[in-house]
Design brief:
It contains six helices and ten strands, in the order ββαβαββααβββαβαβ. By secondary structure, the chain is an alpha/beta fold. The protein starts with a strand and ends in a 9-residue tail after the last strand. Bound molecules: 6-phosphogluconic acid.
């Protein structure tokens, strides 16, 4: 993965790229390496996609040469970290975005796509998605170990649909919860989201963050002593897995080495 690297204050690896296009290339390279490393020793790869707009360029690259041809997509299983409670063809649907730029472009078997059913009542969608994850990983596991979880971050430090002040941040047992969402950032619709124990059980977590508007939150997260963790993003700390920050220079603009 090209790009300047620097160790961050919370022992995660931080890669800074010139701009969002170069960041997308770095992220696609990281994802491909994780896939190849994993599929060399096991026969399937469970990747949890982030929603929002930042990853669109990453998914578009993954579906294009040379990344597309470098992966046996029949071995890849796609999940989501969260979903807006809208139909799958709604402009706000995270599933729709990934479907447009990635899933429809690669040879992914339909049974390998594990979407959150945003069109049904949120609590039912959460329960249904938890069953889908459990079916993939086996119900005997305390928490599922995704091979890679991609996360974006909001300016407020939210990740997935775990927003500051939400009780969902403190969930310790359930893998998936439904949350009301009637305050910015938009869209102001209920969400379904995985919980922090699921995120922190992953083998790899990649935070992909771009833009100057997020620079102060990125800097605060990478330099805040663990004891004062108040933002959801500050609670991302894989138990055994790897955490990497993939940033553009704008988002990294307030990090002091
Ligand atoms: C969502 C995402 C959310 C997103 C951040 C960053 O459903 O919106 O899961 O957590 O990653 O809000 O979004 P942008 O990439 O659009 O800034």
């Amino acid at each position: 993965m090209s790009g300047k690297s620097s160790a961050s204050a919370i022992n995660s690896k931080t890669h800074v790229f010139q701009n969002i296009e170069v960041l997308a290339g770095g992220a696609a390279g990281y994802i491909l390496s994780a896939m190849q490393e994993t599929l060399a020793v096991q026969d399937r790869f469970a990747m949890m996609l982030s929603g929002g707009s930042t990853p669109r360029a990453v998914y578009t690259l993954l579906a294009s040469s040379p990344y597309k041809q470098a992966v046996d997509w029949s071995q890849v299983h796609i999940f989501w970290g969260d979903e807006r409670c809208v139909p799958p063809d709604h402009p706000d649907s995270n599933y729709r975005m990934a479907g447009e730029v990635l899933i429809s472009k690669v040879d992914l078997p339909a049974e390998n796509v594990h979407r959150i059913r945003g069109e049904i009542p949120p609590d039912q969608a959460a329960a249904s998605y938890e069953i889908a994850i459990s079916s993939y990983f086996g119900s005997e596991t305390a928490f599922p170990h995704f091979d890679l979880i991609l996360l974006g971050m909001g300016e407020d430090g939210h990740i997935a649909s775990l927003f500051p002040g939400s009780p969902a941040i403190n969930e310790t047992a359930r893998w998936v919860v439904a949350v009301d969402h009637d305050q910015p950032p938009p869209p102001l619709v209920s969400r379904v989201t995985v919980t922090l124990p699921v995120i922190n059980a992953a083998r790899r977590v990649a935070l992909i963050v771009a833009g100057e508007a997020k620079a102060s939150t990125v800097a605060a997260t990478l330099t805040t002593p663990e004891k004062s963790l108040v933002l959801p993003v500050q609670r991302v700390n894989p138990v055994e897995g790897e955490l990497v920050w993939l940033l553009d220079e704008a988002a990294a603009g307030q990090i002091t080495n």
